[in-house]
Design goal:
Length: 101
């Protein structure tokens, strides 16, 4: 069953109008989770169509700012380090190829 965004918003608004706040919030949460799952499935379908084997991922050759931020760590004595562009490039260079599978 598919519900378009307008139908969902209308249903949520009716629930709020009738004082059914927990139900409205639950429906809003379920719809958001459904959208998230659909997006994840679309990514997997795109990867599959591109010939990416299961368990593998396409990644950019150059890391994004968000990727580098995600590698930032705080070590002993508060020293901060990050994988950095050089480390990321080293990981890509050492990554197995399809021939290695």
């Amino acid at each position: 069953m598919t519900i378009d965004k307008n139908e969902a918003d209308s249903c949520i608004n009716r629930l709020f109008a009738h004082g059914r706040v927990p139900e409205a919030n639950m429906l809003r949460s379920l719809l958001a989770e459904n959208q998230s799952l659909k997006a994840e499935l679309a990514k997997r379908d795109a990867a599959s169509a591109a010939g990416v084997p299961e368990g593998w991922a396409l990644v950019p050759r150059e890391p994004t700012k968000e990727m580098l931020d995600a590698t930032r760590q705080r070590g002993p004595a508060g020293l901060e380090w990050s994988l950095g562009v050089v480390g990321y490039s080293s990981l890509l260079a050492a990554a197995p190829t399809e021939a290695d599978r």
